[in-house]
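Checklist before submission:
- one chain only
- standard amino acids only
- sequence pasted in full

Submission:
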Amino acid sequence: MWRLRKYYSPPIMDMEEANGDLLLDHSTRTTTPQHGTPQSDERLSKNDLITINVSGLRFQTFEKTLARFPDSLLGCKFKRERFYMEDSNEYFFDRHRSAFESILYIYQSGGRVKRPESVPIDIFLREMRFFQMGDDLVEEFWISEGYEKPKETILPTNTSQRRLWELMEYPDSSLAARIIAFISVAVIIISIVSFCWETVPSDAETTPSTLNVTSGKEEGRTLYNPFFWIELLCIVWFTMELTLRFISCPSKVTFLTSFLNIIDFIAIAPFFVNLIWADASKSSSSMSFTVLRVLRLVRVFRIFKLSRHSAGLQILGKTFRASVQEFCLLVFFMAIALVLFSSGMYFAEQGETNSKFSSIPASFWFVLIW
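Returned file contents:
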């Protein structure tokens, strides 16, 4: 399935740029179509004119123009033979007129695909397949319409490994895969709720944080901390899920460089680093607490794990990635407006004794908020 990406449309060429190959005759066909035999190959040459009648609208082009795509219906003499009308010395096709103009333009332009605005995508695609334009031109058509070619799905060759990979990676492949995906989403939500709930003042005072274990007394109290056990169960599930996906993945390099897999690793790394750090450093130094606070903050990245199970979030992420230049341009103009209005406010209030705008940077906050 093709996905919509940032729109791109190739430049439109005039028909005159195609060496004048296209000739239109708007006269209608009155004779009854009769199948016959086309001219012999000896009589045909590259400069011979070929007349093509599409539902009464006649087109003329050179044999050499159609020969640019020899595997297509019009480019192969033997394929188009059954559409030849001997009485009128032309090829007759009961097809879509407007779509055929662009089909013929593909031959004339050497492969440039441009759909008429009046022809729907499904009709134009059906006409391209009827005239056997090939997969490369169909792909070019999708690109010209602003769609992105999906990446080819690579599955493991081993049967057991492939089943495990489909079970962990493709929720729609089976009922068991849906159940695992549901459990994963539930564990992610529980982990995020626990991360937020343990910061509530009443709970934070009665239950020591799992990331601030620095003494034997607190280690004993941690065993009775419900947030610790919730965190432990979530980490066990995340670790098992990541391990099974790594074992069954078809490409280890691609797996390790994937953004979502990096997020999965970041989601479980702070827990193990905290255990190692707590055992190695029993002191209450400021550096130890700083590192533990940073590790605790990293846990918030688990919310990005939901994007693995949501196609909408993935589309939103790709939309942001495709609009990076526009976002940079927006930030640039916002910075200009920020400096401009802050400067105006500073110089306007410069003579006031109780002015809060003591400098241009001090005026940034007021401009950003208001």
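Reviewer check: The first helix runs from residue 63 to 66.
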